[in-house]
Predict the 3D structure of the following.
Amino acid sequence: MKILTTNYLTCALRTCKSHPNSFPLHFRDAELQQDSSPFNASFIANILPRLDWSALLTTATELGFTNLPLEKPTVVDERVGMALHRILIETQVVEGKLVCRNCGHEYAIHQGIANFLLPGHLGISPLLLVWGGALAEIYV
Amino acid sequence: MLPTPTTSHLSFDHIYEPSEDTFLLLDTLALQSPFLRSRFPQTSLPLALELGSGSGVITSFLTTHSATLFGHTSITTLSTDISPHAPDATKQTVSANITEESGCFLGAIRTDLATGLRPGVVDMLVFNPPYVPTEVVEDGNGEEGWIGVACGGGVDGMEVTIRVLKGLKECLSESGVAYILLCERNKPEAVAEQLRNGEYGVKWIVEKVGTSGRKGGWEVLGIWRVMR
């Protein structure tokens, strides 16, 4: 899963969706893989307006990338372009977790695939989640 | 004709094998190229999302052929599926077919439809639903396992699709467009009318942009384009 994906993801719980703390989700125990791919200057220039910069900064910092400017640049020079290319395109998250800061729910990433299924999605009635106690409430 | 992505690396014990419906979607998307080129120029950097990607042949098609379909490679693709087998299959299919001239595949996520996606980020949504009328929508534990989930759509074959249609308003960006396959038994004309008259929260512009044509049987498939 490319890091850019996290700019499009939020917590799967409906009650978290409108809460500012549910975006971005936060990486924990992330294992990264670096690929190499040709630099596409127009791709990087065009992705810029779409990016939520502060969310990207948070994500990048959590993963150890500290070379992005604090403000979204208006033009992409070579240095920023290469840094974005490295982070957004060439880096894959292979293992780890994405955590919602609002509810604390952890979404596992295994072999590059994030799992956003909640118990309710697999046909388990919230009523069966007796062991979940108060947790069951949120899954309704 | 754009080549269909290879899936020779997959076995189809738990994954829906690309079939007539899949190929109709691919053919229709290829014919939509002039529309896609004008709707999603390079500067818009569209995000294409496939729901229920299964083998990944459609996501792979969009990624690999982005230069032909969109006129540029500044597109991102993402896929979701509820099955434990599909995201990995999709990943493999994209990898097997990707070239240096492809769009950017972000990843395959295991989730229920578009759950977990931020509202309003999807520019192009593609869905080949479980559209066969069945008594219940399966959960993977039925006799047909995850293939049953990929095929069975409950009442009128529409139970899963209705959830997608209800979520379109939230999921799609302002310029977003959805391509959804419906079969005759889904009562597509009535569904299109409901979409047009605002029953799904927006007075959607709906057009049938692809069809498998009339055949002896009743299983006629159509691709419906939905946008604001």
Summary: Residues 124-140 of chain A have pLDDT under 50 and may be disordered. Chain A is about 25% helix and 20% strand.
